[in-house]
Amino acid sequence: MRTDSRLATVAGYVAGFALLFLIWHLAATLLVKSILFPPPWPVFERAVVLIEDNILQEQIVASMRRILLGFALGSAIGIPVGLAIGSFRVVRWLLEPWTEFFRFIPAVAMITVAVIWFGIGEESKIFLIAYTTVFVVVISTAAGVGAVGRDKIRAAQCLGASRLQVFALVALPATVPYILTGMRLAMANAFVTIVAAELIASNDGLGKLLWDARLFMQIEDIFVALVALGLLGFATDRVFRFLIRIFAGRFNATV
């Protein structure tokens, strides 16, 4: 039964992408009819050329490396901060203004600051990814702590659990789905941010590929980069959902 469900899911994904490319083809050939909006097939042919020249793979690896490093750093900071904000009122009073202040400053606005501080190397891009990740994770984690049922906490206390045991055995497990959901949302922000960062200052990556293609009016290259970003984002999100099922399924995560 589970195998049939997985096959149906995969078939649905394939059908969805087929419909997307069909609509793209019809729009490009019947409605727009412009060299600036090529149909899927020339874009696919250009992608094959870039793959054969090992160009597309190099750009994907460069972007994904930055995304994963910055995402891991931002999550490593955001989870404990979110747990502290949700668990201790004094910490919430002190750190909530910081969170609310900085999360409304978009990562794109911090690009200039990041370049000044860290230069145009890897550090600035990893900083930006961590910056755009940390606040989403903090808010989601703090919300998870606040959503823990009081009855569960009282039940653990009635059984003699200490405050540390209540946190480790009741509050933290119940917060795991919120943490992972926040990380999943933050991953989407990471993709947006890495493209903007690589457009401004980078020697490689999908953002750099987009920038060079714009400069030389290589329209097919632009669409190759866009399709690659979309497919990478879709694949990353599916992997994240799979991991949520594995590590948080018993806590009733919504996936």
Automatic annotation (TrEMBL):
GO cellular component, one term: plasma membrane
Membrane topology: Multi-pass membrane protein
Keywords for the protein's UniProt record, in alphabetical order: Cell membrane, Membrane, Transmembrane, Transmembrane helix, Transport
InterPro entries with a match to the protein in the record: MetI-like (IPR000515), MetI-like_sf (IPR035906)
Pfam families linked to this entry: BPD_transp_1 (PF00528)
Cell compartments where the protein resides: Cell membrane
Identification of the protein by name: ABC transporter inner membrane protein
Native source organism of the sequence: Neoroseomonas lacus
Lineage per the UniProt record: Bacteria, Pseudomonadati, Pseudomonadota, Alphaproteobacteria, Acetobacterales
